[in-house]
Design a protein that fits this description.
Elements (H helix, E strand, L loop, with lengths): L2 H31 L4 H18 L6 H7 L5 H33 L4 H15 L3 H9 L3 H24 L4 H22 L10 H5 L2 H4 L2
Helix pairs in contact: 1-7, 2-4, 2-5, 2-8, 3-6, 4-5, 5-8, 6-8, 7-8
Length: 213
Amino acid sequence: MALKAFTIKGIKWSGLSQVGRHILQLVTTVILAHILSPSDFGLIAMSMVVIAFVYVFKDLGTGAAIIQKKEHSEKLLSSVFWFNVGIGTIATGIMIVSAPLVALFFKEPGVEPIIKVLAASVLLSAPGILPQALLERDLKFDTLAKLELTAVLLGSLTGIGFAILGFGVWSLVYQTLVISFFTSAFLLLSCQWRPESTFEWSQVISIGNYSFN
């Protein structure tokens, strides 16, 4: 298939994924708004400010560097994979430790336990960073769209289900965790590449000039 055809196909599937996810999230929010209280949404909104900030740095640009790089060695890919997992682990730990300070800043004690649990979403998403980059590099946007929509759908069903059962704000927390877990799981299953148990810091540094910027 010519590059032009791949590009058109990629735009179509990327657009479908974005529209589909927005519709699912909108419908889910409308349903949850009739079940949960405004204070539940307020707590999750304060917590997501922290999560969103950490997500900006979750891979330090390694995914983009892999897409840009022409040739990949197995050592490079495995090293970047474990680097991302390491960064996710560190970020999760920092969020857990800093949760009391965030709660103090917002003057809302209820934020602390939510951030501590939501921190796991960063760790859960870390293994999917490299597989996503490889799928994007191979222009498999149809695969990405399908798995993203499926993960969001599963998360929405989880959130609505727990809300009906009376879990309050935690239904929104579990929704986020489910989306993170299944997105990474589907990415790993959809990508033919598998990480090896090897790590070389020099391999990560080799893409540092591009990724760290």
